[in-house]
């Protein structure tokens, strides 16, 4: 008789798991005993020891036990049950705002209690609110956990204690009768020297106290590494699989008819850089195939991605298809509209711009043109995929500053084309380089083109970090620059404040600077202005009718005014590295020396000063992206909007960066030589959660 495999045993195999609970578990992707074993703790609690009350430290988790010496209801602003616990070393107050009569009765004087919670120091000395507690018979160390207590991710209606008990049962089942299968081909895991999977799983669910700090304990670290590797590998394989599926879709082919590209290049007032040419030829190659392109174009701010997008668009339009270019802000969509009109207008290509601001008759007209194909190229914001928009033949989707969009938004736009029974080609562009670790994980399913040089003649921006106390000098610098017919930005930042406060701060700064700089024409730009006001201000700034543009971070992405050569960023210590680099990219676009002055308020935090130092040290977006990842961690870099792309149960891209290369190799080996391992590994780690790989 063959032994049942844990991946085939349903959760109802565990006593006490009935249909309702089975369904609940299923709703978070747990279907089998194996799934229970691979539902990994998010953290641990240490209930292996008892602390003395006298030795408690504030803001720490602790476990103590003692005898109740007092228990009463306190009336005051909020009624509470207050209970004093004495362990002969000291007193601890337990406070409950939610309680009932039987709870009060159970905590009567003389009762012995063991409790676990957070400590605060209040008027009465050490206090804890709503601790976990249980009544014990005697003050001995009986019944203490021998291992750390795992805390699992739960869902509504599924209690931690219940889930913990079920998982503990599941882990108990891992024995000879129900082995946990090792799906890594033996040859591979032997070569990598990993711990075996069963040991690793036991370690994760029931770690010894000494292994709480995983990297300090060799054995435990081994277990984590082994599982992290398997998870990274499973993700890569899943992405490869869906990319293979994706590649089966049919896309329209866009050949370079009648030397479209050559003529376009000849019409440009500049020579393309080598990396622009290379990116365009990679894209052109993709577009001429019958399955959809899925390509990420990375290039630092100012490296000239827009013209690459234009070349791709021309090929699509030349083949009789439409192009939609989605940008994160109206300002940027409008700016693209102007650029493409200039490039495409002479060839009688109809260019449109669809944002929330286009209303009434003009909107109807534009929507009509999009649905009949009269409009061949449309730039816009997320308005591009709203319900009322119907495309005639959408063949290419371009997403600018792709990291600003959520996965769902990109999917929505793609779905606009599916009525054709063909899939559109997709080009994503980003000025925020993807650090290597992310490129090898979250973005492993995308093809990459990289523009790694700036157009010739650009002079690197010089960056200085200046304390707020020297503001006056900075203002004088602006005066000098603007008198010399140069232009400047002054960026006001208020993090975590409302739009209104941001706008007010920018307004106040603009007024003040206008007074201090009577010879300088000051303009103001912030997120609460009407779209047409914003555009008007930008046009005036572009036309050099404004010398100094005081702005909030709305100018972060895409804004292109080559004559602006000075940027001041206030409170720069509050911004992230990537954002600062983006902002700085607004200057250094012309042929003059440019400066970025980072004002900060002393004292700087360590992290803050590291960030500013990194920025001063380099202009290379890729170096900055790596530094950013190091300082902030992957979750933050991916951004909350994109967390749907990838969340790991155990792998940590910083800690496990060293595993990525071997995961990549193992992926290749498994696809080539061990196809039977593919599905089991994907099912184990990803199961039903195989989403978004096609966006
Ligand atoms: P980004 O990559 O940040 O989107 P843009 O596409 O806005 O950069 O290009 C920045 C500026 O550089 C634009 O004014 C653009 O016309 C110009 N540009 C692009 N490519 C070249 C080139 N090869 N030589 C000179 N200028 C270029
Ligand atoms: Mg751009």
Question: Please, could you describe this protein's structure?
Answer:
It is built from 23 helices and 22 strands. By secondary structure, the chain is α/β, with parallel strands linked by helices. The chain folds into four domains: 107 residues, no CATH class; 87 residues, Nucleic acid-binding proteins (OB fold (Dihydrolipoamide Acetyltransferase, E2P), Beta Barrel); 193 residues, P-loop containing nucleotide triphosphate hydrolases (Rossmann fold), CATH 3.40.50.300; 157 residues, Rossmann fold, CATH 3.40.50.300. The strands form four sheets. The protein has a seven-stranded mixed β-sheet with strand order 6-7-4-3-2-5-8, with no helix packed on it. β14, α13 and β15 form a beta-alpha-beta unit. α6 crosses α7. It is globular. The C terminus is likely disordered. Bound molecules: adenosine-5'-diphosphate (ADP) and magnesium ion (MG).
């Amino acid at each position: 008789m063959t032994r049942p495999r844990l991946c085939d045993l349903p959760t109802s195999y565990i006593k006490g798991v009935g249909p309702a609970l089975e369904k609940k578990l299923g709703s978070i992707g747990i279907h089998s005993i194996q799934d229970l074993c691979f539902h990994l703790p998010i953290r641990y609690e240490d209930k292996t020891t008892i602390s003395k009350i006298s030795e408690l430290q504030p803001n720490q988790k602790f476990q103590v036990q003692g005898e109740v010496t007092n228990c009463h209801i306190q009336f005051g602003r909020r009624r509470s049950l207050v209970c004093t616990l004495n362990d002969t070393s000291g007193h601890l107050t337990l406070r409950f705002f939610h309680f009932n009569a039987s709870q009060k009765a159970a905590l009567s004087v003389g009762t012995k209690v063991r409790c676990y919670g957070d400590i605060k120091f209040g008027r009465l000395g050490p206090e804890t609110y709503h601790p976990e507690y249980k009544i014990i018979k005697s003050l001995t160390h009986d019944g203490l956990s021998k291992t750390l207590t795992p805390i699992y991710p739960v869902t509504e209606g599924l209690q931690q204690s219940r889930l913990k008990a079920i998982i503990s049962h599941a882990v108990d089942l891992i024995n000879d009768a129900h082995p946990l299968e090792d799906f890594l081909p033996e040859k591979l895991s032997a070569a990598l020297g990993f711990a075996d999977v069963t040991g690793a799983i036991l370690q994760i669910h029931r770690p010894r106290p000494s292994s709480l700090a995983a990297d300090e304990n060799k054995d435990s670290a081994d277990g984590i590494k082994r599982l992290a590797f398997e998870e990274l590998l499973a993700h890569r394989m899943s992405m490869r699989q869906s990319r293979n599926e994706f590649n089966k879709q049919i896309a329209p082919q866009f050949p370079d008819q009648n030397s479209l590209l050559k003529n376009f290049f000849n019409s440009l007032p500049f020579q393309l850089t080598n990396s622009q040419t290379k990116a365009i030829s990679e894209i052109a190659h993709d577009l001429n195939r019958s399955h959809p392109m899925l390509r990420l174009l990375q290039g630092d701010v100012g490296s000239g991605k827009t013209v690459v997008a234009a070349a791709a668009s021309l090929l699509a339009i030349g083949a009789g298809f439409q192009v939609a270019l989605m940008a994160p802000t109206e300002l940027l969509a409008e700016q693209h509209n102007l650029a493409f009109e200039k490039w495409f207008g002479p060839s009688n290509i109809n260019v449109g711009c669809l944002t929330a601001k286009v209303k009434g008759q003009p909107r109807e007209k534009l929507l009509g043109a999009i649905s009949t194909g009269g409009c061949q190229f449309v730039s816009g914001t997320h308005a591009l995929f709203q319900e009322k928009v119907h495309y005639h033949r959408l063949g290419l989707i371009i997403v600018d500053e792709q990291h600003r969009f959520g996965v769902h938004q990109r999917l929505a736009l793609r779905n606009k084309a599916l009525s054709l029974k063909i899939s559109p080609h997709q080009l994503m562009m980003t000025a925020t380089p993807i650090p290597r670790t992310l490129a090898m994980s979250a973005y492993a399913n995308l093809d990459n083109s990289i523009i790694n040089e700036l157009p010739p003649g650009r002079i690197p921006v010089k960056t200085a970090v200046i304390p707020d106390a020297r503001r006056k000098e900075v203002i004088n610098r602006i005066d000098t620059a603007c008198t010399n017919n140069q232009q400047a930005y002054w960026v006001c930042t208020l993090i975590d404040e409302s739009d209104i406060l941001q706008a007010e701060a920018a307004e106040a700064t603009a007024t003040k600077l206008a007074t201090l700089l009577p010879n300088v024409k000051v303009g103001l730009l912030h997120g609460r202005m009407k779209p047409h006001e914003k555009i008007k201000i930008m046009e005036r700034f572009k036309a050099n009718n404004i010398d100094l543009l005081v702005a909030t971070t709305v100018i972060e992405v895409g804004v292109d005014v080559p004559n602006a050569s000075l940027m001041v960023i206030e409170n720069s210590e509050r911004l992230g590295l990537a954002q600062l680099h983006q902002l700085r990219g607004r200057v250094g676009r012309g042929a003059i020396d440019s400066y970025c002055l980072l004002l900060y308020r002393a004292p700087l935090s360590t992290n803050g000063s590291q960030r500013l130092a990194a920025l001063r040290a380099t202009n290379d977006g890729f170096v900055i992206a790596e530094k950013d990842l190091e300082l902030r961690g992957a979750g933050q870099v991916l951004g909350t909007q994109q967390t749907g792309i990838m969340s790991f149960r155990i792998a940590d891209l910083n800690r496990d960066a060293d595993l990525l290369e071997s995961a990549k190799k193992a992926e290749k080996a498994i696809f080539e030589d061990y196809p039977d391992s593919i599905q089991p590994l994907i099912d184990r780690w990803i199961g039903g959660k195989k989403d978004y790989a096609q966006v």
